Amino acid sequence: MRDGRLYLDGVSVVFDGFRALNNLSLIVEPGELRAIIGPNGAGKTTMMDIITGKTRPTAGTVSFGDRDLTRLDEATIANLGIGRKFQKPTVFDALTVFENLELALKAPRDPWSCLRWRLSGTARRCIEAVLEEIGLAERADHRAAILSHGQRQWLEIGMLLMQDPKLLLVDEPVAGMTDQETEHTAALLRRIAGSRSVVVVEHDLEFVRALGEKVTVLCEGSVLSEGSIDHVQNDPRVVDVYLGR
Ligand code: ADP
C-alpha cells in the first residue's frame, strides 16, 4: 500500500449543530506534497483529525489506498503508515538527537527502556539516514534541550520518518521559525515528498510558495479553491474571504 492515495469523499462533521466540515472532497495523490490554507475556523484541524481517526465524520468516507479509514481508530490508522506532526514539538529534552530518533524507531511503551537496547546495524543505518535527511547529522550527540526551535521541529519530523510513514500530516511547521529555518523546512518537506505523501497545514504563504506544489484553500468546511499558489492567490473568492485585499 505504499502507493496510497488519500481520498476524502463528501466528508461532513457536525459539532452540536455546527458544520465544521461541509461535504469536503479532497484527493492527495501518492507522493504529492499538498499545502492546505484557509482562514481560522475553516476546518483545517478538523480535516487532519478526520484523516487520523481522532474525529469521526458525520457523513462521507475517508480512504487511503484500498483501505477505508472512516471507522478505524487512531492507533489502527497510525499503523497503516499515517503519521501526524502537531505544531508543538514533542521531543525528549534529556535525550540526544540520536537517542530521540532511536526512541521513535523502537516506539516502546517505556521511553527509557530502549536506551538499554543494543542497536542493530540496520537500525543505526536507518537513524543515520534520517539524521542526514533532517540536516542534524552534526548534532547527533547534542541533547535536544539545546536545539533551536527549528531544529526541534526537524527532529520531530525525523522521529516520524523513523516510523516510515506513507502519509505525513504536518501542522503549521514554520510558526516561530527564522527565515533560514523556514527555507530549510520547505526543502526538507520537498525532499520527503515523492517517496511518501505530505499534507501541510500552514498560514505562512511565503513558505507555501516555497513548497512550490498544489495548494487547497479551505473555507467554511469545504474547498474554496485549488491550484498553484499564484492561482489561489489571484482567485477573487480567496482574496475576498482569506487574503482580504
Ligand atoms: P481551523 O483549523 O481551520 O482553524 P478547525 O477545524 O479548528 O478550524 O475548526 C473549524 C470549526 O469547528 C471552528 O468554528 C471550531 O470552533 C469548530 N470546532 C472544532 N472542533 C470543535 C468541537 N470539538 N466542538 C465544537 N466545535 C468545534
Automatic annotation (TrEMBL):
It comes from the Bacteria. GO terms for molecular function: ATP binding; ATP hydrolysis activity. Keywords: ATP-binding, Nucleotide-binding, Transport. Transmembrane segments: none annotated. InterPro entries: ABC_AA/LPS_Transport (IPR051120), ABC_transporter-like_ATP-bd (IPR003439), ABC_transptr_urea_ATP-bd_UrtD (IPR017781), P-loop_NTPase (IPR027417). Residues 6-245 form the ABC transporter domain. Gene3D superfamilies: P-loop containing nucleotide triphosphate hydrolases. This is Urea ABC transporter ATP-binding protein UrtD.
